[in-house]
Amino acid sequence: MGRLDGKVAIITGAGQGIGKAYALRFAQEGAKVAIADLNDENAQQVAKEIEAGGAEAMAVHVDVSDEQSTLDMAKTVADRWGRIDVLVNNAGIYYDLKQGDDTLEYLKYVLDVNMIGPWLCARAVFPYMKEQGGGKIINQSSGAAWMYAMAGFAMRSDAERVPSYHYSVSKAGVNAFTHFLAAALGQFGINVNAIAPGVVMTEATKKHVPESMSGMIKMASALRRTLEPEEITGTAVFLASEDSNAITGQVIPVDAGTIMLG
Fold first, then answer.
1. What's the rounded mean pLDDT across residues 136-160?
2. Is the pLDDT of residue 204 over 90?
């Protein structure tokens, strides 16, 4: 018997990386999983993999930065399975992140997807969770939200303009949304929490983090290692299950003990 038996979960950005790991684990725990992604082919492949294992899944197209798209996503899932128990706001710009682009336009783009997107998705599922008397919303944050010291090192003394820190700022915004939404939605039986992964060895991370930095990253954590996507999924299952019914408004670092070391 799985910890999520009978629950209906929407996982955005579940076509690859940590989102895919979430989807596979949720299915193993008995949930019906909606693979919500901008990449239809990836979403369909993950849904087929879940179905091949004997669980229920569906691929749903969504652009989390588009309000109507998020509303359509929620309706499609509710129409098929009759309810929405869990929303995992995992979608975000990371794999294709342009780290050196400090333009105003790109900052707005990153914020639209990484910060405003989870808010739009939460708004989309809220009516269904309210009507059924409860639900779980899990936001994907990042340890990058707390890396303030890095901002000083990244700012050159001969710089001519202020950097945007787009990714870190977007995840700090996710943390703030998590607290505010938890305070507002608790009266409806809706728990809102966030997971802040450390360095997880997805294809996106391997793209952005040079192999030469691997040793330094490991030494920056208490456990002296990086993480695999599957290691983040247990926290998500816990937050989606009834075991976490008394927990809300929390941002939980799953980072091998990096942030706690400062």
1. 82
2. no
Burial 95-130 (b: 16+ CB within 10 A, else e): eebeeeeeeeebbebbbbbbbbbbbbbbebbbebbe
From the list 195, 204, 199, the residue with the least C-alpha distance to 216 is: 199
Q: Which residues are catalytic?
A: 167
> What's the rounded Cα separation, in Å, for the pair 184 and 240?
19
Q: What is the pLDDT of residues 168-182, one digit of tens each?
A: 999 999 999 999 999
Angle between helices 117-132 and 166-185 (to 10 degrees): 20
pLDDT at 149 over 80: no
Is 69 in a helix, a strand, or coil? helix
